[in-house]
Write a structure and sequence with these properties.
Elements: E1 4-6, H1 15-30, E2 38-41, H2 43-52, H3 59-74, E3 77-78, E4 84-85, E5 87-93, E6 103-107, H4 113-120, H5 125-144, H6 148-162, H7 172-190, H8 198-212, H9 216-225, E7 233-239, E8 250-257, E9 264-272, H10 278-281, E10 287-288, H11 292-295, H12 297-314, E11 318-325, E12 328-336, H13 341-353, H14 359-364, H15 368-374, E13 378-379, E14 387-390, E15 392-395, E16 398-404, H16 407-415, E17 420-424, H17 432-437, E18 440-443, H18 451-459, E19 462-465, E20 470-472, E21 476-479, E22 482-485, E23 489-493, E24 498-501, E25 506-507, H19 510-516, H20 527-542, E26 546-550, H21 554-562, E27 568-572, H22 582-590, H23 594-618, E28 623-627, H24 640-652, H25 658-670, H26 682-687, H27 691-708, E29 714-719, H28 725-743, E30 751-756, H29 759-763, H30 765-768, E31 774-777, H31 779-787, H32 791-804, H33 821-835, E32 840-843, H34 851-860, E33 864-867, H35 872-883
Parallel strand pairs: 3-4, 16-17, 17-18, 18-19, 26-27, 26-33, 27-28, 28-29, 29-30, 30-31, 31-32, 32-33
Antiparallel strand pairs: 1-2, 2-7, 5-6, 5-7, 8-9, 8-11, 9-10, 11-12, 13-25, 14-24, 15-19, 16-23, 20-21, 21-22, 23-24
The chain binds adenosine-5'-diphosphate and magnesium ion (2 copies).
One magnesium ion (MG) binds next to helix 31.
Length: 884
């Protein structure tokens, strides 16, 4: 197996093997762009190292070979005391994990080569010692797990001793002294000296990068982002170039378009006389990239040209890391850039306008998850909230919460259900748990490319960064004379960067207004609304899957229809038994004679009919699937404990409570150990005479009533929890009689079908299809019964452990388990259609609105998915994406 690739051997499509960074460095090298030479150690080497826990056979020899080639290309030997070659050792996985893993710069420096480096730089001692101290710091932290703050404290002390504020104000002697201090820190924590052998430094750094794949924060990040745990990282060894050689040097990051809005222009940050991570870490405040034109026009022009080349080549927004060494520009990284949800849509539409991509490809450049983010509400500023300050809008959204200052505190307060805003000077990967727990993130330093900004955008979390008027302390922050303490509430706007005191009211997003029909996309001067309109319209043209909604009221039905629903896939009737109607259900349950029961049912029927008529009206012309009552009836009765206490207390006071006593007896009688596996669904219909009949009558009468008004009702009666065709046949025979009697020659057509949610139903779908005109997969119950997981209990009880062990990467209740539950869906689809060609097939579980599941249902060949009204646009986009 080949473990090492020269940059010239790779290309951008080899991300699996070379990681994103390595693949793109190779691509840039082959485009003839100025990339410092180097090579990439593959992810396979990493996987092997992590499996064995040590040493990978043959890797050392391959590194020797490529290092020798690199040395001869550069005309310098690694760590040569006279004229040293230095390299960086950089992590780079298939998926970008910003700041999660490790990089060591300046490898090859030691007590001897530091002088050689100084001579190389024309006698620049300061630079050489600064590079050396950075190596010990990064190497110590990354390779030997020396606590980073020890180095930071030593640096801080050096600055205080000298009475200066900035690193750049330390001179060569100060830095030489700092190296001595750093070495002491190193020995104290590791028990041995800082390694002087350059090749040993290189090997140790490579292994440390391998190991960083399994660092806690990397593991957490992968889980959050659903990145598989076994990919491993590649390692890039790159000849060093120096941005810290003086005023004619520097380092920066750039985007070919604004990653927040998608607008074209010059976006990025530049820091002169600095190395690598200084920009990203927000150590010093950066200059806008546009200022580089003034500082170094030649490099600026070349960079602009390279950016145009990269956009043209990748046909998408790229982000870039570059360094200028004494007026010579070097490209250190590029990739198709992360972006906000809004930018994803606007950039895709712009690229279509520019003729770079077509609409099909535009559709692949956005996701339903991004659309979901755009449907979040925004702040309503008409109440003129108190503006505290303004930073950079780094990740959109409107968030409020109690101010907290540490990651741990954020986790703690959020766990009690209180929304929090995590406020930090800057964030680092250790803050990840707090960032996940927080509603929003606010920092005083760093730009759109800071750790806080990048990670928040990835998580879809509201973030404002670089609010530099803010002085962040331990348990408060101040802006001028105003102090905000921990526990006070603030609101942050991740689009505008504004920070407000108190909780600001929110208003719906423009995208939701557009879906509501309140914004005309052709007139909207908002390019985002126009882009969403264009792309979702194309998704509608391309998709094969229809999208219906789950709705129980006319109001929900109407909204879902505005959002593009093509019918109702699940109308739950049990919600219609709640509220004042609970009493009628009690009467039904307590009925002692047929007459009493019929009376209770007769009272319920007109109420149900009115509900159905309302819904049919709103969905006029579109199919409406109504599920007959599903949950165990005792769900409509008071709880056993409460009732028992009430009755006992009444007895104590010598009161007579006959009704409550009867109720209590009924509750006791109906108690079940496993209600979800008990008397519910079709079983209720078979056991309680007249219940289903009442519902069927109400449906048929409502349909006839709408037809009489000139409407076109399309009712579909769905029987829940069927496991055997005989159950369905029994219900069907009764229902057909009732329907025939009511419908007459009104022209109304009523379909009868079933849910497929018991595994046995899926496995005998061929038989069941004989009695069903449609199937709707109830994937919640199907998942629950296929796995034997109680949906209401498992999440909190032990799913975390299953996720940790990788038994599944995501809860099977969130995204369909394609291998197991999905196989049941496939079997039922094939056998159902074989028995009854033209059988209508849909899905009505939560999965109907989950992007990955929508792709699965498309591929299996269902006719529609059904989801909650707000997920309808998301399902439309994803069904379109699945089809192109
Ligand atoms: P990350 O993936 O966290 O961005 P990188 O591997 O890109 O880590 O490196 C961290 C920083 O060091 C970046 O700013 C990068 O540009 C800089 N850097 C990496 N390699 C070199 C090099 N050979 N010469 C100069 N700077 C480098
Ligand atoms: Mg980088
Ligand atoms: Mg169910």
């Amino acid at each position: 197996m080949k473990f090492v690739y020269d940059f010239a051997e790779g290309n951008k499509d080899l991300k699996d093997l070379l990681g994103g960074k390595g693949a793109n460095l190779a691509e840039m090298t082959n485009l003839g762009l100025p990339v410092p030479p180097g090579f990439t150690i593959t992810t396979q080497a990493c996987q092997q190292y992590l499996r064995n826990g040590t040493h990978v056979d043959g890797l050392g020899a391959e590194i020797d070979e490529h290092l020798a080639a690199l040395e001869s290309k550069m005309g310098r030997r690694l760590g040569d005391p006279a004229d040293p070659l230095l390299v960086s050792v950089r992590s780079g996985a298939k998926f970008s994990m910003p700041g999660m893993m490790e990089t060591v710069l300046n490898v090859g420096l030691n007590d001897a080569s530091v002088d050689g480096l100084s001579r190389q730089a024309g006698g620049n001692d300061r630079f050489a010692w600064d590079s050396y101290r950075r190596l010990i710091q990064m190497f110590g932290k990354t390779v030997c797990e020396v606590p980073g703050h020890e180095f930071e404290d030593a640096l801080h002390d050096a600055k205080v001793a000298k009475g200066v504020k900035d690193d750049v104000q330390l001179d060569a002697d100060d830095l030489r002294a700092l190296v001595t201090a750093y070495k002491k820190v190193f020995v104290k924590h590791t028990g041995h000296e800082f390694p002087q052998d350059p090749r040993e430094q290189l090997d140790l750094a490579v292994e440390a990068v391998f190991r960083s794949w399994n660092a806690d924060r990397a593991v957490l990040y992968r889980r959050q982002e659903r990145i598989p745990a076994d990919l491993g990282t590649a390692v890039n060894v790159v000849a060093m170039v120096f941005g810290n050689l003086g005023a004619d040097s520097g380092t920066g990051v750039a985007f070919t378009r604004d990653p927040a809005s998608g607008e074209q222009g010059v976006y990025g940050d530049y820091l002169s006389n600095a190395q690598g991570e200084d920009v990203v870490a927000g150590i010093r405040n950066t200059l806008p990239l546009a200022d580089l034109e003034r500082l170094d026009k030649r490099s600026y022009d070349e960079l602009m040209q390279i950016m145009a080349t990269l956009e043209g080549h990748y046909r998408d927004l790229c982000d870039i890391e570059f360094t200028i060494e004494r007026g010579k520009l070097w490209m250190l990284q590029t990739r198709v850039g992360k972006r906000t949800a809004a930018a994803a849509f606007t950039i895709a539409a712009q690229l279509v306008d520019e003729g770079v991509i077509d609409l099909d490809e535009a559709l692949t450049r956005v996701t339903g998850g991004q659309l979901a983010q755009l449907m979040f509400p925004r702040f309503d500023l008409s109440s003129s909230p108190d503006s505290l300050t303004r930073g950079v809008g780094a990740s959109p959204g409107a968030a409020f919460g109690q101010v907290v200052f540490t990651s741990a505190r954020a986790v703690e307060v959020a766990a009690s259900g209180t929304p929090v805003i995590l406020v930090r000077r800057e964030t680092n990967p250790d803050d990840l748990p707090g960032m996940i727990a927080a509603n929003g993130i606010l920092t005083s330093r760093g730009g759109k490319t800071s750790h806080a900004a990048v990670v928040a955008r990835g998580m879809g979390k509201t973030c404002v960064c670089g609010a530099d008027e803010m002085e962040v302390g331990r348990d408060s922050f101040t802006i001028g004379s105003h102090t905000v303490r921990e526990g006070e509430t603030i609101s942050i706007d991740g689009t505008t960067g504004r920070v407000y005191l108190g909780e600001v009211a929110v208003r719906p997003s423009e995208v939701v207004q557009y879906f509501e029909g309140d914004l005309d996309p052709s007139q909207a001067n908002d390019p985002l609304v126009a882009a969403v309109h264009r792309i979702i319209t194309h998704a509608d043209d391309q998709r094969r899957l229809k999208v219906r909604t789950n709705a129980d009221t006319g109001l929900d039905a109407a909204r879902a229809r505005r959002f593009g629903a093509q019918g109702i896939g699940l109308c739950r009737t049990e919600h219609m038994f709640l509220g004042d109607r609970r009493e009628l259900v009690e009467r039904l349950i307590l009925a002692r004679s047929e007459a009493e029961r019929n009376e209770a049912l007769a009272a319920l029927q007109p109420l149900q009919r009115a509900d159905f008529l309302d819904i049919f009206r709103e969905m006029n012309g579109l199919p409406v699937t109504i599920r007959l009552i599903d949950p165990p009836l005792h769900e409509f009765l008071p709880s056993l404990e409460e009732l028992a206490v009430k009755v006992a207390v009444a007895h104590e006071h010598g009161q007579s409570v006959e009704h409550d006593e009867q109720l209590l007896a009924a509750v006791r009688r109906m108690h079940e150990q496993n209600p979800m596996l008990g008397l519910r669904g079709v079983r209720l219909g078979l056991v309680i005479p007249g219940l289903f009949a009442m519902q069927v009558r109400a449906i048929a009468e409502a349909a006839v009533a709408l037809a009489a008004e000139g409407g076109k009702p399309r009712p579909e009666i769905m029987v829940p929890l069927v496991g055997a065709v005989q159950e369905l046949e029994t219900v069907r025979a009764e229902a057909e009689k009732i329907i025939d009697a009511i419908v007459g020659d009104s022209g109304v057509e009523v379909l009868i079908g079933t849910m497929i949610e018991v595994p046995r139903a899926a496995l005998t779908a061929g038989q069941i299809a004989e009695a069903a005109e449609f199937f709707s997969f109830g994937t919640n119950d199907l998942t629950q019964m296929a796995w034997g997981f109680s949906r209401d209990d498992v999440e909190g009880a032990f799913f975390w452990r299953y996720l940790e062990l990788g038994i599944f990467g995501i809860s099977p209740f969130e995204s369909i388990d394609a291998d197991g539950v999905g196989r049941l869906v496939r079997i039922a689809t094939e056998e159902g259609r074989a028995a009854r060609p033209g059988l209508k097939l849909g899905v009505c579980g939560e999965h109907g609105g989950d992007p990955d599941s929508v792709h699965f249902f498309h591929e299996v060949g269902l006719d529609y998915v059904s989801c909650s009204p707000f997920r309808v646009p998301i399902a439309r986009i994803e069904a379109g994406r699945a089809a192109v």
